[in-house]
Write a structure and sequence with these properties.
Length: 268
C-alpha cells in the first residue's frame, strides 16, 4: 500500500489499477501501450506519473477516465463515504494541456456547461459558477471570452470547468506543459490549495520531473513502450514547496537519473 503522508484528511476516493494492459489495433499492427500496470492511488493522494513521450501516460489516464477500455486487468474507483465501500464507475474530471474551451462562450458559460449537464437549476448554476471563479481566482473574468485571456488564465478556466463536475478524482494530462515557468509556478500553488481544500485524489501526468517533485506525494515512473512501472518514490519534502528549492531539485535529480537510464536502455 501507499503512504500518503500529506494527503488531505477526509478524502474518500481511491483509484486502483490491477494488471492493466492496453493494446491498440490488431494482429500485426497491434501496439502494446501498457503492460500489466498496477497502481493504487490512496484517497487524497497526489500521484505524478512521469515517463518519456509515447510511453503510455495519456493512455493510462484515458483508461482511468473511462474514455477507453483496458485490454486486460481492472480499474476500480472506490468511494468510502458510507460505512460500506462502494465500487463505482464515476467519470473523474479530466484536464488536458490545451484548455479546449468553447471559444464562442464566455468564461462563465464555459464553466456552466458541466453544471447544465448535471441538471442544476439556473440559480444553483449561477451561484456555483461564482464560487468556481473565486476558487481559480478569476472573479472578474466571467464575462470574458477565452481569446481575451492568457494561457494561464485559460487553464484556470479549464480547471474550474473540471471542478464543476464535482468529482473527487482529478486526472490531469500535462495541464501546465504549455505555460511559462512563472505562470506554471503560480498554478502549482493554486492546484495544491484546491487539492487540499477539496480533498481530491489526483493523478497528474507530466514529463517534467521537477514539476512532479514539486507537486507529488509519490512519483511513479513509466518505462518506454510498453509502459510498465519501473520506479516509484514518495516525495516527503514538506509543503509548501518551491520548485527551485534544493530538496525538490534532489528528488528531481534522482528521478531524472532513472528516466535517463530507461531512455538510454530503450534507445539501444
Ligand atoms: P504518452 O502520453 O506517454 O506520450 P500515449 O499514451 O499517448 O503516450 O501513447 C502510448 C503509445 O500508444 C504510443 O506509442 C502511441 O503511438 C500509441 N497510441 C496511443 N493512442 C493510440 C491509438 N488510438 N491507436 C494506436 N496507437 C495509439
Ligand atoms: Mg500524452
Amino acid at each position: 500500500m501507499t503512504s500518503a503522508t500529506t494527503a488531505p484528511a477526509g478524502a474518500t476516493t481511491s483509484v486502483a489499477l490491477a494488471g492493466v494492459t492496453k493494446v491498440y489495433g490488431r494482429g500485426e499492427n497491434a501496439v502494446l501501450a501498457l503492460d500489466r500496470v498496477s497502481l493504487d492511488v490512496a484517497p487524497g493522494e497526489f500521484v505524478c506519473l512521469v515517463g518519456a513521450s509515447g510511453c503510455g501516460k495519456s493512455t493510462l489516464l484515458n483508461l482511468v477516465a473511462g474514455l477507453d477500455q483496458p485490454s486486460g486487468g481492472r480499474i476500480e474507483i472506490t468511494d468510502r463515504t458510507g460505512s460500506a465501500p462502494s465500487v463505482r464507475r464515476p467519470s473523474p474530471g479530466l484536464m488536458f494541456q490545451e484548455a479546449a474551451l468553447f471559444p464562442w462562450l464566455t468564461v462563465a458559460a464555459n464553466i456552466e456547461v458541466p453544471l447544465k449537464l448535471r441538471g442544476l437549476s439556473r440559480d444553483a448554476r449561477r451561484q456555483r459558477v461564482a464560487e468556481l471563479l473565486d476558487t481559480v481566482r478569476l472573479r472578474d473574468f466571467g464575462r470574458r471570452r477565452p481569446h481575451e485571456l492568457s494561457g494561464g488564465m485559460r487553464q484556470r478556466v479549464a480547471l474550474a470547468r473540471t471542478l464543476a463536475l464535482d468529482t473527487p478524482v482529478l486526472l490531469m494530462d500535462e495541464p501546465f506543459g504549455a505555460l511559462d515557468a512563472m505562470t506554471r509556478d503560480l498554478l502549482h500553488d493554486e492546484l495544491e490549495r484546491i487539492w487540499t481544500e477539496r480533498r481530491l485524489t489526483v493523478l497528474f501526468v507530466t514529463h517534467n520531473v521537477r514539476e512532479a517533485a514539486r507537486l507529488a506525494d509519490r512519483i511513479v515512473l513509466l518505462s518506454s513502450r510498453p509502459g510498465r512501472i519501473i520506479y516509484q518514490t514518495p516525495v516527503t519534502t514538506p509543503r509548501p514547496r518551491r520548485i527551485d528549492s534544493p530538496e525538490i531539485a534532489a528528488v528531481a535529480a534522482e528521478v531524472t537519473d532513472r528516466l535517463r537510464t530507461e531512455v538510454g536502455r530503450h534507445g539501444q
